[in-house]
Amino acid sequence: MRTLGREDDLKAPGQLDPLAASFARLYPPQIGTRRVVGPMLIVEHYLSRLGRALEAVAPITEELPGELVVKTAAELSVAVGASRLHLDLTAVRFAGAYEGSAPVEKGWAADRTITRQVKTLHASTKAGVAVYFRPHKGSSSELPAFVAAIETLAETLPPGLVVADSGLSYVENLCAADAKHVDFVVLLRADTGWAERLATDVPGGLDSLEPLDYVSFREQRLDPDRRTVWKGLLRPCPVTAQDGTHHDLRVAYIFSSEEANSVADAPERALTTANDALTPIRNRLGGSVHKTRRQVDAEVAQILTGNVGGLIVVTTGTRAGKPVISWRCHEHTIAAAGALDGLYALATNLPDPRGGRLDALRC
Predict the structure, then answer these.
(1) From the CA atom positions of the chain, what is the Rg in Å?
(2) Domain map (residue ranges) of the chain
(3) Is residue 158 over pLDDT 50?
(4) Residues near 54 by beta carbon (within 8 Å), at least 6 away in sequence
(5) pLDDT tens by residue, 20-45
(6) What is d(CA 344, CA 231) in angstroms, rounded to the nearest whole number?
(7) Most buried residue, 32, 103, 240, 241, by most Cβ within 10 Å?
């Protein structure tokens, strides 16, 4: 039994610390004991509650933000703005170490190279408001990503139009969107074969395309002779999905004089770039870097990517035990590419413009 002392002495200034120290001397903690004291105890309490909430949300963290925005857009007035969406799939490249990262994986990029990346799918309104966004593994294919987005948008938002980039232009993607009754306008990739179909669909070539009465907002103040010339034609494009379902799609061939002017010198620039890259290889033949034909072929393969590969013909070989290289322009391919300058193709499941939907094709 011990006393604390006189009450007036305990209330005197500066007596609290000695009193606390006396308790420590009477009941000292065991060696190695650690105690948390001070106001951070309160902070720790609320942080632990926040942490438990985040752990509960973690399994659905990828889906939750996009679904919340879509749900809000469907129930509030912004749903009117969501009647036309722009869908885009972009590969975001990563460098460095990302051990244990689920989305960062190696996969094919748009330039046909394999890189460490994450594929991100966004859907935004015409005004640029994002209503759907979802990350996908870098190694995942485009089809399930687009199908999942189309299913969510079709079930949640009111009927409308989807304008998408060329990533959606594969037959299975288009059929999936059509099956969900989602109207779309999609830019077709070159490897979908639309240029080869042009000769059959439009026998008269570019000259047979019909003039389009369209003026962009930024050109409305220009004189008529300075405005972009637009021409186009809509042709049926029936396709069959892998599940056997038939879809009556259409292809809109669109010509833009502005686009034609901007790409007219693209082949020449590509040839110049290829020539600048191949000349140093020829100058270093037989050296340590280009000692064999196999080494030369490996470096040439990296140069002849994209559109350059079709514009130039490279020949390698061996002479007197040393590699040799030569190249020339592919005149036929260059001429064929120039004939389609300014022309692109859009796939759509919209009705024929004569049914009153011409403006929908002007997205």
Answers:
(1) 33
(2) 59-159, 187-256+342-363, 266-338
(3) yes
(4) none
(5) 666 666 666 677 777 777 777 787 77
(6) 11
(7) 103
pLDDT band, very low/low/confident/very high, at 360 (cuts 50, 70, 90) = very low
What does the alpha-carbon distance between residue 129 and residue 242 come to, in Å, rounded to a whole number?
34
Cα–Cα distances in Å, from 278 out to 16, 100, 234, 284?
84, 40, 42, 10
Each residue of 234-247: pLDDT tens digit?
888 898 988 899 99
State how far the Cα of 21 lies from the Cα of 242, in Å rounded to an integer. Answer: 81
The closest of 302, 325, 296, 324 to 313, measured between CA atoms, is 325
Q: For residue 152, which of 50, 52, 283, 62 has the smallest C-alpha distance? A: 62
Two tokens at 244? 């056997």
Count Cβ atoms within 10 A of the Cβ of residue 81 and give its class: 0-12 exposed, 13-18 middle, 19 or more buried. Answer: middle
Q: Which residues contact 105 (CB under 8 A, 6 or more apart)?
A: 116, 117, 137, 138, 139
How far is residue 189's CA from residue 205's CA, in Å, rounded to a whole number?
A: 19
Cα first-last separation, the chain: 90
pTM flag (> 0.70)? no
Q: How far, in Å, CA of 186 to CA of 54, rounded? A: 38
- Extract the tokens encoding 143: 């089809």
